[in-house]
């Protein structure tokens, strides 16, 4: 019994399945994407932090998204990079490390939804109640919204992963590119009915509240824009809302594809690929979309690069 318990503490991780010929190109591609995610998102946070003119609720709330993108990518990509250059028979991971990775992966995915929900609320107040915007979106409100977004995601995922950790283990192989909640409870031979019920409820509540709040918010914004003859207001609303919606749609579609593919076991390889893309594509695109679409941020980036280039030329 002791040997069996000890063995199940060291798991075999399937990792990213690539042919030996493709391992180096896959490693280089993933590494470049990871570097891009880190540089673009951290750079945007630093820019918003240093530029006082960008200390506005919309940009400060966006920092939550950039921080979450960095956190989510760091949770998954370094492990994938290590596995790409490691033989499949040697891809070991400690159970506790697997639990931590699963928790962080789900926490990041959940926070993406809750953060986008509070960003939608900010856009709703800015466009539908512009005269009351500064009174409502105070520094205290921004902090409260940010803390609530992270706390709700934390509590929901803590219960989700906790239900899997309570199960005994009779298997050692994680049939997934990285550890997630499904990987954890599939290591057990016990009944996982409670896990499935809570997992379904967790998904319905998270996606339902996310999709419902964002849809309702933008319907109200659309009504305000259609009833207003202020072209300046409509143009600003279109620019900021289109940016937010683009980010939300990319994240929602990529997450929904994973859920749909779960219903088709024979498409497991496509589901695994979709799981990786969910933690790679949105983080790589979010900073670019916001940085290039929002005029104030774009102008600050141009000024910063112009200033640096000019300084180098005068030296």
Would you kindly provide a written description of the structure presented here, covering whatever features stand out?
This protein is mainly alpha-helical and 315 residues long. The chain is built from twelve helices and three strands. The protein has helices at 2-7, 23-50, 57-84, 95-128, 133-136, 139-165, 181-185, 193-227, 231-261, 268-278, 281-293, 295-314, and strands spanning 10-13, 92-94, 173-174. Residues 1-6 have low confidence and may be disordered.
Which features does this protein show?
315 residues, mainly alpha, 12 helices, globular, disordered N terminus
Question: What's the mean pLDDT score?
Answer: 82
Number of strands: 3
Shape: globular
Low-confidence stretches: 1-6
Number of helices: 12
Q: What is the CA-atom radius of gyration, in angstroms? A: 22 Å
What separation lies between the terminal Cα atoms? 71 Å
Largest pleated sheet: 3 strands, mixed
Overall structural class, as computed from helix and strand content, comes to mainly alpha
Arrangement of strands in the largest sheet: 2-1-3
Proportion in β-strands: under 5%
